[in-house]
C-alpha cells in the first residue's frame, strides 16, 4: 500500500455519513477559494500561515440560540403564561450558558503556532504547542471532508468539516492507512462544498499562487456604518415605504450589534499572531531563488491535467443542461 492509497476524488459512504478525500494528490476541487472560518493568519509570496482557532462558528451558534430563547421568553410573557416563560428562560439559560462557557474557554486559550505552507519548497512546517517541529512534503498531506446527517424531531441536518492529516517526522515515508496515527488539524466550515472551498485556500496558494487566495482574516471594513444605514434605509424607503425602512434599520442594528461585538473580540484576540521562533523554522521560512523552487511531481502534474479536463467538460455540459 503506498502513501496515496486514498487518492483525491475518492468518496466513502455509509449509513448517514460520507467522507471525501481531497488530497493526496491535491487536485482542483472545482470550487472557489473561500476562507469561511478566517483560518488564514498570514500570507506572502513565500508562505501561508493557517491557524487552528476559529471563533466565528461558536459565536454565531451561541448568539442565535440566545436570541431564540430570549424571543421565546418574551412571547410567553406576552401570552400571559408566566410558568412557560420561566421554563423557557431556565432552559435557555442552561443551554446558552453552557455554550457561552465553552466559547469563553476557547477565547481564553493561548494561540497555538500556525501551520506554515511554503509554496517554494512545497513543504509544510508543523510546530506543536510544546515546541516540537518537523516538515512534511506538500504532496503527503491528507485532506479529508467528512460529513454526517443528523436526524432529530425537527428534521435532518447535515454537519461536516475539514480534516488535515500529517505524518509524524519519523513516519513520513511510511504508508498511510485509516488507523495510522498522525498530527491532525480539524476545522468546521461545513460539509461538502464548504469544506472544499476552505481547502482550496490552501491548495490554490500552493499550486496557483498567493493571488488566488483571499487576504488574511478579512473583516467588515469595506463599508462604513453610514453607508450601511443610510444607503440601505434610502433604498428600502424608495421600494417599500418609510415604515419598512425603519424596520429594516432596526433589524440591521440588531445584526450589527452582533457583528461589531464579534469583530471587536476577533481583532482583540488576533492582535498578535504567533510566528515561528526557532532558528530552524526561521531559516526554513526564507524565500528561495526561483531556480531552487521545488516542482510538482509527474504524478500530480498528470492528475491536475486530468482533473482540469473533467471540470472543463462539466462546465461545458452545464449550459446545455440549463437550457
Walk me through what this model shows.
The chain is of the alpha+beta class and 323 residues long. Helices cover 43% and strands 19% of the residues. The protein has helices spanning 56-78, 82-108, 193-207, 225-240, 242-269, 279-284, 298-322, and strands at residues 11-14, 17-23, 40-43, 47-50, 115-118, 123-127, 133-137, 142-152, 155-160, 162-166, 183-187. Strands 1, 2, 8, 9, 10 and 11 form a six-stranded antiparallel beta sheet that branches. Strands 3-4-5-6-7 form a five-stranded antiparallel beta sheet, with helices on one face. The longest helix is centred in the last third of the chain and has 28 residues, at 242-269. The chain is globular, with a radius of gyration of 23 Å. It starts with 10 loop residues before the first strand and ends with a helix.
Strand residue content: 15-25%
Classify the helix fraction into a percent range: 40-55%
Structural class: alpha+beta
Q: How many strand elements?
A: 11
Q: Treating each run of at least 4 consecutive H or I residues as one helix, how many helices?
A: 7
**Ends distance:** 45 Å
Which sequence of SSEs, written as H and E, runs from N to C? EEEEHHEEEEEEEHHHHH
Any idea what the radius of gyration is?
A: 23 Å
Report low-confidence residues grouped into runs of 5 or more.
Answer: 1-5, 219-225
Let me know the largest β-sheet: 6 strands, antiparallel
- Rounded mean pLDDT is 82
Overall morphology? globular
Amino acid at each position: 500500500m503506498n502513501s496515496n492509497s486514498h487518492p483525491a476524488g475518492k468518496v466513502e459512504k455509509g449509513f448517514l455519513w460520507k467522507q471525501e478525500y481531497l488530497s493526496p494528490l491535491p487536485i482542483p476541487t472545482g470550487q472557489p477559494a473561500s476562507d469561511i472560518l478566517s483560518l488564514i493568519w498570514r500570507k506572502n509570496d513565500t508562505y501561508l500561515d493557517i491557524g487552528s482557532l476559529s471563533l466565528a462558528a461558536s459565536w454565531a451558534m451561541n448568539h442565535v440560540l440566545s436570541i431564540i430563547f430570549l424571543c421565546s421568553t418574551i412571547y410567553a410573557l406576552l401570552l400571559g403564561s408566566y410558568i412557560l416563560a420561566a421554563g423557557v428562560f431556565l432552559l435557555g439559560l442552561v443551554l446558552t450558558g453552557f455554550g457561552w462557557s465553552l466559547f469563553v474557554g476557547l477565547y481564553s486559550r493561548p494561540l497555538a503556532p500556525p501551520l506554515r505552507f511554503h509554496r517554494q519548497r512545497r513543504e509544510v512546517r508543523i510546530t506543536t504547542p510544546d515546541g516540537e517541529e518537523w516538515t512534511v512534503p506538500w504532496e503527503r498531506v491528507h485532506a479529508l471532508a467528512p460529513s454526517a446527517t443528523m436526524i432529530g424531531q425537527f428534521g435532518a441536518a447535515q454537519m461536516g468539516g475539514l480534516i488535515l492529516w500529517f505524518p509524524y517526522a519519523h513516519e513520513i515515508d511510511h504508508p498511510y492507512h485509516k488507523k495510522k496515527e498522525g498530527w491532525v488539524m480539524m476545522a468546521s466550515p461545513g460539509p461538502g462544498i464548504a469544506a472544499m472551498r476552505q481547502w482550496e485556500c490552501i491548495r490554490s496558494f500552493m499550486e496557483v499562487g498567493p493571488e488566488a487566495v483571499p487576504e488574511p482574516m478579512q473583516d467588515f471594513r469595506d463599508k462604513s456604518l453610514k453607508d450601511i444605514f443610510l444607503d440601505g434605509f434610502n433604498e428600502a424607503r424608495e421600494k417599500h415605504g418609510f415604515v419598512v425602512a425603519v424596520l429594516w434599520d432596526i433589524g440591521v442594528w440588531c445584526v450589527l450589534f452582533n457583528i461589531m461585538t464579534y469583530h471587536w473580540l476577533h481583532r482583540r484576540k488576533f492582535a498578535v499572531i504567533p510566528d515561528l521562533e526557532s532558528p530552524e523554522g526561521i531559516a526554513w521560512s526564507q524565500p528561495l531563488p526561483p531556480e531552487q523552487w521545488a516542482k510538482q511531481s509527474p504524478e500530480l502534474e498528470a492528475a491536475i491535467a486530468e482533473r482540469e479536463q473533467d471540470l472543463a467538460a462539466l462546465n461545458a455540459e452545464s449550459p446545455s443542461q440549463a437550457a
